[in-house]
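hi! just following up on the protien thing from before. the input was this:
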Amino acid sequence: MKLIQNCSHPITISRLVEDLRQLGLGSADTVLIHSSLSALGWVVGGAQAVVEALCQVVLPQGTLVMPTHSSQFTEPRHWQNPPVPQSWWETIRDHVPAYDPHLTPTCGMGAIVECFRHVPKVFRSSHPTLSFAAVGPLAQTILRDHVLEDGLGEFSPLGALARLDAKVLLLGVGFDSCTMLHLAEAKAEYKDKGRILQGSAIIRDGQRQWVAYYEQNYNSDDFFECGEAFLQAGHARTATVGQGRTHLFSARALLEFAVPWFEENRNSMSLDSTP
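and the predicted 3d structure came back as:
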């Protein structure tokens, strides 16, 4: 009801298509998308309408990519929302289903992402917790080399997108939702850069196995600040899509800005916190 009250008119597919094109999204683009359905206003058709609008603008010449993460398939000792008793950990490790790119749902990624992964001819990468989905001529190129360790690092779909100089679309969301900044922090050198022991159930040699692997201890606390500095430097196009503030920019430009930004600001934070 509140969403309807805050909208002067319903948002249609044609309106979304027009807004996206005016922002600069093109028919041959390769684009990584982060999104919020509610931020766009009251959309006629909901998540499906947003996905169809994106497909109309970019496909068939371009490639759409979205993160399809499944944090419910991670090491239970790290769970916080909510935490589970330590006495449950081993049972969870022994019985959680193995990741299946076709079956495993996303977790906390939003309605648009969950709808997108069901689009015909969408492919999904092999990482059990940090997967990405893509459709278009470059989909398999982007997804095929997704290593288990450091799943948001250089040898992930993020790294492939950066090498292709893909665009990034923040559709009604801010930089705190931008996974490309995780690649930037993976590439940056700064103090107290930690790693954690992660775990997931996967299919290996035809059998379900629980496997342990190391992952960078990613930290998005300063992503908003980094993103605002990036915007102030004039590296992105910003407009309203539907009713949502939206940013479009080059993945490579973001990395070139964010890597030194993290190195300067996170090292300064470490120095400031030294007793």
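Residues 271-275 have pLDDT under 50 and may be disordered.
The two ends are 51 Å apart (CA to CA).
cheers
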